[in-house]
Write a structure and sequence with these properties.
By secondary structure, this protein is α+β, with helices and mostly antiparallel strands. 23% of the residues lie in helices and 28% in strands. The chain has 3 helices and 12 strands. It has helices at 2-15, 17-39, 50-62; strands at residues 82-83, 95-98, 103-106, 109-113, 119-121, 126-134, 138-144, 149-156, 167-168, 173-176, 190-197, 200-202. Strands 1, 4, 6, 7, 8, 9, 11 and 12 form an 8-stranded antiparallel sheet that branches. The protein has a two-stranded antiparallel ribbon with strand order 2-3. Strands 5-10 form a two-stranded antiparallel ribbon. Strand 6 (126-134) and strand 7 (138-144) form a beta hairpin. The radius of gyration is 45 Å and the shape is rod-shaped. The protein starts with a helix and ends in an 11-residue tail after the last strand.
Length: 213
Amino acid sequence: MSTQKSNNFLRFLRQNLVLIIIIACVLAITGIILGVSLGKSPVTPVGPSVDDTYLGEFNDYLVPPKSEEQKPTFMSPVAEYTLGMDYSRDSEYVLVFKKTLNEWSVHNGVDFLAEEGAAVVAICDGTVTSVRNEYGMGNIVEITHADGLVSSYFSLGDDIEVEEGDKVKKGDKIGSVSTSAAYECAEGAHLHLEMKKDGKFVNPANYFDINKD
């Protein structure tokens, strides 16, 4: 009986030898592949991570953009006026004739001829940095604004309504038109306005419209 089983097994091996060899090869190759894969260290990803890529592509959406600083706006210091002596540093003729002093010189500001007592207002938001009186230019208020700008109001009346250190808004009344500027008394009642940017004189017409009619 055992001899017959042995013969049957040998017959089976001879008939299926090729198939057995193929199965053995497949198993061997599979074992080799598994061994190599399990023996390797984890692969470190190269390039930006998912988070980095997301932030890089959509940064504008994730991080709110910085709001641009709002530029100051300006207005005329006197509502109704006639233009007197204009700013001359930008003109073809830098020197202008000043009737009161009977001389030719540079005019660093703009003269707004108006009725005596007419309201003078701040041309822009700022802080009052000086309230004083100077011989020749009368009562003066100086206001410091943003961006290195300073406005100075000369020939004001005695009824000045601000003090040094006050915060003012554009359009706030600071004083009134008068004839306190002795060096320009020939022009009559007026406001003499000067502006500086970073310590240098600038033309007020660069910041607000001036009626030159």
